[in-house]
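Task: sequence in, structure out. Protein: AraC family transcriptional regulator.
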Amino acid sequence: MRWSDENIRFVDTSLERSLPLFIETIGYSAWERVFVRPEGYPYYHWLQTIEGKGCFELSGERIWLTPGKSVLLTPFTPHSYYPLSPRWSTVYITFGGTAAPVILDALDMNVSACYTETSPSFFSDLVKEMIEKASQDTEFSRYESSTEMYRFLMLLKKMAMRNDRPSLSQYYDKLRPVVRWMERNLASNIGLPEIADQANLSISYLNELFHDAFGVSPYSFLIQLRIREAKTMLITHPQKPLKEVAMMTGFNDVSHFVATFRRKEKMTPAKYRDLHLESEEVNDWNVMTDA
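Result:
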């Protein structure tokens, strides 16, 4: 599907708005117009430039929307926008849903902000796909679009730069070597200084990168990796003593391991292992009865 000189717009006319996430409108404006909304829009509103240039005014700030740049607005946020070139073409989505605020809170995206795609046409291609599905299936906006909208938000979180800060994927690329080193050295007595040395970064900058990428400190991330490895061992080697599991995953002693595991998983390692052993016993019983 190629963008043309004609506007494309699909509106969810369903009165059923109880879905966790729904698309109210989705479309393409070949010639974007002037909009002034002193009281904002009642749904979340995402707008991205395809061609030309526009200006988006928000909270007294002017944002220049060139190709690849977009704005995500929260409901009822006063704003206005207008063309700055003879032709300004955009794609847009307005959406809501009972879970929309919760999802955006969890993604740390429930604020009005400017986004920049890091891969050319990535998001406009996603919108094209969604528009094509909407044009072929009148029920798309009621069910499948809820899934598509969730996927869109996840990719926006991962692939786009917010307010000119690196995207999650860019953070991941930068941190991937040190994360792999941490995974290989879980059993070793390593801490923040060793992680910073391996990354060849200052401790303060390393902390900043990990908080931006994962929402936790480097050491907290290391503990999560150790707990993940411990869970794998508890399931795959159920006869292995807890003391040995603790030692092989970098914990100083079994009491520290148990206390940390309980804090993170809300149960002891022994209880976690027993739950999986019970599951296997049930499956074995089901196989026997089927036979």
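The chain is about 45% helix and 20% strand.
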